[in-house]
Amino acid sequence: MEEKILLYCRERGIRLDKFIALSTGLSRSKVKKDILSGLVLVDGEVEEPDAKLKGGEIIEYTPSPPEEVEIIPENIPVEVVYYDQDVIVVNKPPGLVVHPGAGNPRGTLVNALLYHFKDWDINGYVRPGIVHRLDKDTSGVMIVARNEKAQKVLVEQFKKRMVKKSYIALVVGQIPEEGVIDEPIGRDPKNRIRFSVNYEHGKEAVTEWRLLRYFGEVSLIKVFPRTGRTHQIRVHMAHIGHPLVGDEVYGGVRKVKKISDERIRRILLSFPRHALHAGSIKFRHPATGEVMEFEVPLPEDFSSLLKKLEEIT
User: What total number of domains does the chain contain?
Assistant: First the structure.
């Protein structure tokens, strides 16, 4: 069993499964299954998933462990920046999913690494070695653990915010030269595939940015996330009115269509993904404690996009 989660409900009239899903970030289907399995107690009693909370309840939730699955090694090209017996550092291309999941059982970074690196001393769960992740369409540098000890140490470093990362992003509009966004992020209560600034169920999220240059009505920025929430940079930039170019989920594409310069608008609309790249990462080696830092260049599609913009601005 996983570690028990204690929740206190302040809302009245919300469904039990919805409240837990919003509070934990877990999928509602998993939460519902766990409630029906007796893994949730409301004031010490078992309830149904659709039970309406009155407010003031204490909820004890012990999530079921992830199911073990067989992951098939696949000969997928992947750029390895560094490796040793404990860690692998890769430059993930855009379009590659990090680990198997619903709708993506194969063709992921994990499948590729299990093919190229045979000697893994790690459990058989669906995310072996994964200590952080990048969205499918985000490119850039990632660390992967090669054994359980390294995985535990790296996960702890991320929890304690010891790992330092920087990203390159292209956002819509002329953003101020620098700034910090300190707004909690959680599941969007109106659309569960999205995240949003959520003051009731969100977790602390802090994003710092610095302007690199303007390209007309868009801005190239360097971003320093101080926390690691899902979709953090995308959500925070959209929240302040500067969504990422190419981001259909958080309004970037919609806002690009309103750019007045037709040449810029046409170039940006041809970019097939959100313009976000994990450029650098700094951490302590899980075995030696040595400070390690890696930086990877922009992928060809992103650098080509900037070159086209530079030519006309």
Answer: 3
